[in-house]
UniProtKB/TrEMBL annotation:
One of its GO terms (cellular component) is plasma membrane. GO terms for molecular function: ammonium channel activity. Belongs to the ammonia transporter channel (TC 1.A.11.2) family. It is found in: Cell membrane; Membrane. The keyword Transport applies. Residues 31-446 form the Ammonium transporter AmtB-like domain. This is Ammonium transporter. Keywords: Ammonia transport, Membrane, Transmembrane, Transmembrane helix, Transport. It comes from Stephania cephalantha. Gene3D superfamilies: Ammonium transporter AmtB like domains. The chain crosses the membrane at residues 31-52, 59-81, 115-137, 146-166, 186-204, 216-234, 246-267, 279-297, 303-324, 336-358, 397-420. PROSITE patterns: AMMONIUM_TRANSP. Its main location: membrane.
Length: 472
């Protein structure tokens, strides 16, 4: 049988064609499309479910709808101008030239894996832009005027997110100088945390009774949304190499390892200090672990990821559970989901620790360069004075990049909020705030008999009830 020579006439559909050219790396393209879908699922339905469940019942619809609208609006902005502002031809050291990204007349060159279609890259990066502004929304739930939110999303994507993406990931100022931000600790998490906190200041707080008592309306669904967020992070960090290679595998493993350690660390602190194993606390610890590992997911060893998990489960816990309650500054700003702590604090921590633990060989594999990126400070200490000085230099860029992202978002987010307030109120009316979803959208998440609703008569309810003795 092995010596038989088989000849087949291939159907025309199986003959290579222009849709599958020789330059296309099918494995990398498949992996990248999968990662893009994972990141998209983090927002829709992940954060939709999480937001709609973690807020009190009267804000369930509004919270979920803010996320859904932002996803759709961000896609329109990204394709029409945002992508090329973030990854196109340089206009300034902080910004690319606005242009449409629908054209397929240029290809995305991958140093390790070959070529993939530009459409794949556009959609993958869109999912990052969308989740950033949706994370930001977590600071504004329960009181922002939805019409103001409609204006806020495209303005913030255009004038804030694109500058961070281009300066650190495109051909911008910090990228040229070798800042380490593997998958968005600065571009996404410091940005969303600081911008959310700033916008929350301008929008104002919820009603005092809502701040004092805001129980989740469905904790089981909170866990479901959190689970989609956690598993979706495989694409979030695993897709950053733009190749199905060893760095992608390492990034996925480190992501989940750090997250598990962080969750358990947060849970342990809750049990030690408050004598309760809080479900919401565990979700917060999960998120801080995901955020902290993001800037260095494919650049650190698993043992370093474990240390990052221990720190991401403890330092943000302290800022949220202790410092926030004692600080008059934090108390003046209403941040319902603690986005500043889970994203800005954890993202900054991850960026700094990436500058400490980034392994030189992984930096060379990922960035394809020998000299641009200094070794992590830890490896600089091991390798001698020259390498240590390079590590200090790298750490300087890590700190400078974080300060730039934070400062830019404070300024631009403030300008956007002030501008919008000239046309529409940022905050809902007091009477509407008392009602919630029904006032904002004319809809409610749960319309239950006995909760202000009258039971609609049915044929069964109108049937005369027999005496109990007859029903036996």
């Amino acid at each position: 049988m092995d010596n038989l020579d088989y000849h087949f006439d291939l159907p025309s559909a199986l003959v290579p064609n222009e849709a599958s050219p020789e330059w296309l790396n099918k494995a990398d393209n498949c992996w990248q499309l999968t990662c893009a879908a994972f990141v998209g699922l983090q927002s829709v339905p992940g954060l939709i479910i999480l937001y709609g469940s973690v807020m009190k019942k009267k804000w369930a619809v509004n919270s979920a709808f803010m996320a859904l609208y932002a996803f759709a609006s961000a896609l329109l902005c990204w394709v029409l101008w945002g992508h090329r502002m973030s990854f196109g031809t340089q206009l300034t050291p902080l910004l690319g030239k606005p242009n449409i990204a629908l054209s397929q007349d240029y290809l995305l060159l991958q140093g390790r894996g070959g070529y993939i279609p530009v459409a794949t890259f556009v959609f993958y990066e869109f999912a990052f832009a969308a989740i950033t502004v949706i994370l930001l929304a977590g600071s504004l739930l329960g009181r922002m005027n939805f019409y103001a939110w409609i204006l806020f999303v495209p303005l913030w994507i255009t004038f804030s997110y694109t500058i961070g993406a281009y300066s650190i990931w495109g051909d911008g100022f910090f990228q040229e100088r070798g800042i380490v931000d593997f998958s968005g600790g600065y571009v996404i998490h410091v940005s969303s945390g600081v911008a959310g906190f700033t916008a929350a200041y301008w929008v104002g707080p919820r009603l005092s009774r809502d701040r004092q008592s805001s129980p989740p309306n469905n904790i089981i669904q909170v866990l479901g949304g959190a689970g989609l967020l956690w598993l979706g992070w495989s694409g979030f960090n695993g897709g950053s190499p733009m190749a199905a290679d060893m760095i992608a595998s390492l990034a996925v493993l480190n992501t989940h390892f750090c997250t598990a350690v962080s969750l358990l660390m947060w849970l342990s602190l809750d049990m030690i200090v408050y004598r309760k194993s809080s479900v919401i606390g565990a979700v917060q610890g999960m998120i801080t672990g995901l955020v902290c590992i993001t800037p260095g997911a494919g650049l650190v060893e698993p043992w370093a990821a474990m240390l990052m998990g221990l720190m991401s489960g403890s330092l943000p816990w302290y800022t949220m559970m202790v410092l926030h309650k004692k600080s008059a500054f934090f108390q003046t700003v209403d941040d319902p989901l603690g986005v500043f702590h889970t994203h800005a604090v954890a993202g900054l921590l991850g960026g700094i620790l990436s500058g400490v633990f980034a392994k030189p060989s992984y930096l060379r594999m990922y960035y394809n360069t020998q000299d641009k990126y200094g070794p992590g400070l830890y490896y600089g200490l091991i390798d001698g004075k020259a390498k240590f000085l390079q590590g200090l230099h790298q750490m300087g860029y890590q700190i400078a990049g974080a300060l730039f992202i934070a400062a830019w978002n404070v300024v631009i987010t403030s300008i956007i909020c002030i501008f919008i307030s000239r046309f529409v109120n940022l905050r809902m009316d007091e009477e509407d705030l008392k009602i919630g979803d029904d006032a904002a959208h004319g809809e409610e998440a749960y319309a239950l008999w006995g909760d202000g609703e009258r039971m609609i008569p049915t044929r069964l309810s109108m049937t005369p009830r027999l005496p109990s003795i007859c029903r036996r």
